[in-house]
Prior knowledge:
CATH superfamily: CBS-domain
Structural class: alpha+beta
Strand order of the largest sheet: 3-4-5
Distance between the termini: 90 Å
Number of domains: 1
Helix content: 25-40%
Order of helices and strands: HHEEHHEHEEH
Number of strands: 5
Amino acid sequence: MATRATAAKAAPALKPVTVPIITAKEIMQSPVIAATPRASLRDLAARLVANEFSGMPVADLDGRVIGVITEADIIRALLEGKRLENLTAGEVMTGPAFTVDTNTPLEEVMKCLQDHKIVRVPVIADGKLVGIIARRDLIRALIEPEFMLFRETL
Length: 154
């Protein structure tokens, strides 16, 4: 009895699905305000309050990030009995700062914040400060917009 060989049809090759990778550049806040190491801590505190920031990078004049200063750093100085007008950002900042590059994937940015227990991370390009990402920026990038603001127009 003759058997007939049937060739199994090959399934068409699946094309790989490319999932867009969100990078630091896409969610960072830019421009970013940074203090110089010589900035008065009193002026820096006023800038944090006026802009509703909880911290900011400290950078040298060519944009290289050298540290970060936070509300916690300012409170620590006050608890030590120091006067803000007698201190500079460079004396109180935490450094060196953790930074991410503009091409850093979102997941790595999240790991950086989580692993180092920090609230914000400066974003650099070619070693220079170009933006900043805070935890709220990450959350904003990942949630779906289920809330809207409605305003009366006059």
